[in-house]
Amino acid sequence: MAQLEIDNLSVEFRTRHGVVRALESVTLSVARGEIVGVVGESGSGKSVTAYTVMGLNDEAAEITSGRITMGGIDLLAARPEALRELRGREMAMIFQSPRTALNPIRKVGKQIEDVLLEHANLPRRNLKKAAIAALARVRIPDPERRAEAYPFELSGGMCQRVMIAMALACTPSVLIADEPTTGLDVTTQAVIMDLIRDMSRSTRMSTLLITHDLGLAGEYCDRIAVMHAGHIVEIAATETLLDHPAHPYTRQLLAATPVPDSRLYSLTSIPGQLPDLRSALPPCRFSGRCERHQPICDERELPWAQLSPAHIVRCRFPL
Question: What is the rounded average pLDDT of the residues 283-303?
């Protein structure tokens, strides 16, 4: 049973330069204990999806269609007070830019204590110990001393680990991790991702992992959804998607991803660029960059092709 369900979600941003159709008909689910990766280029809509789920979009954003439910709760219909109660306790997010997400004038240990006080129902006398334990779980050296530091006294990678500790402090039911390993060295990346995977398995936490790193998604995700220009174009079990990509965009993403022992000359780039989401777009937003493009791709609504029970692709001419 899915813990998080996104159904037919469309989001627009009204700007002085026109309406940006950032998401269109996005449908995705995450089961209990499952890690689902969302991959794609910058600007494809990955972070907008995350912020919409958390109810943290800019005021310029307008949800024009769709439904988001978590554990049966309709998040789009919930009152702001109810959402605030859910965020931090049942839903948590690891933000991509920790320096802007952390309070610059409050000690990092106190910031974790704030989350625990609000959502974990711990006695005040136990808050500091629990905050230090949260920092220790993400392998922050000397957590007692680091808990007394302000964000500007820590490196970017250390701030990222503080953000992760804060997100996991209350053992949420749903975790949205937006580029959680940004600024971390390879060893620490593995430690953090192992922790997220272990928590997903042991507490049945549903995890939506947003990343541009296909290698990371391939190692830790059960399923992967590929996004391009506000559309999800392919969803499959990780092994299936990596071994048998069906959408031309997915194949080009994989071809542009370095693998061990690969040579620089063997990598290819994806031609063209993302379309202008303010303009009238064809049903397939990848058509202008696609080597398999046919006139019919621009004329009719794109169908979903069911290639197997766990593999769907939004393309008229899947590979």
Answer: 86
